[in-house]
Amino acid sequence: MIASWQTELQNAANPNKIAVFMSFFKTGKGEYGEGDKFIGLSVPENRKIAKKYLDVDFTTIDEMLHHKIHEFRLSALLVLVEKFKKSNEYNTRKSIVDFYVSHGTCANNWDLVDLSAPYILGGYMVKNPMPQLLDKMSFDSNLWVQRIAIVSTLMLIRNNMFDDTLRLAQRYLSHPHPLIHKATGWMLREVGKRDESILLKFLNDHTPQMPRTALRYAIERLDSNLRQVFMQRK
After folding, report:
1. For residue 213, is pLDDT > 90?
2. How far apart are CA 82 and CA 191, in angstroms?
3. Quick one: which of 65, 152, 158, 214 has the fewest CB in 10 Å?
């Protein structure tokens, strides 16, 4: 099964895109995606293929998640997302979430996190809050686990549940990495789309301490005059 899965992915890939992907996902020496390998497969094509393999077991998914090829790991995550979406049974969903969380370090680039965390962990937390897990993940030493924590709250935000996002956003004010700044600003912007007053309160309380990137992302949808006000506070 895994051989046919990998072959389908490989056959659908476009080698002419490899160099672009390697640059886009920062695979150079010292960059966050250093050493990652690509075959040049688009997300829509990957998703189409992944949907054919929803019956694979966790052992097969584990093997794909530990593969050196980026798109193979993404395909495994897309399978988990679809498995989660298609199941309404609590124990099945819980097992998928537990598996996903235990393999968080395998989602080792921002796209792998962003295409999986909101829909698996985030989707589960809408009915099963897990603030202690999010806190634990936010203190993890692994950058990608930290990003999973904040990005997974997207689904909570879409259900007007903001507490976890705001707590992690405040904690990440002193985080050193731009990818966390971007994710934090993105989630704050999403909060503002639901309730601008909550975003404005957070900004009024924390703008001087916010990384500039996080602030720029957070205020992107605000009135231009408001954006200028907040940027001048930096």
Report:
1. yes
2. 26
3. 158
Q: Is 78 exposed, middle or buried (0-12, 13-18, 19+ CB in 10 A)?
A: buried
| 132, burial (CB in 10 Å: exposed 0-12, middle 13-18, buried 19+) | exposed
In the predicted model, what is the mean pLDDT of residues 217-222?
A: 98
pLDDT at position 34 over 90: yes
Average pLDDT of the segment spanning 173-199? 98
Q: Which residues have C-beta within 8 Å of that of residue 96, sequence separation ≥ 6? A: 80, 83, 84, 87, 120
**Residue 123, pLDDT above cutoff 90:** yes
- Please state the three-class secondary structure of the chain as a single string: CHHHHHHHHHHHCCHHHHHHHHHHCCCCCCCCCCCCECCCCCHHHHHHHHHHHCCCCHHHHHHHHCCCEHHHHHHHHHHHHHHHHHCCCHHHHHHHHHHHHHCHHHCCCHHHHHCCCCCCHHHHHCCCCCHHHHHHHHCCCCHHHHHHHHHCCHHHHCCCCCHHHHHHHHHHHHCCCHHHHHHHHHHHHHHHHHCHHHHHHHHHHHHHHCCHHHHHHHCCCCCHHHHHHHHHCC
pTM, 2 dp: 0.96
What share of the chain in percent tops pLDDT 70?
Answer: 100
> Contact, 180 vs 210, CB < 8 A?
no
**pLDDT tier at 234 (50, 70, 90 boundaries)?**
confident
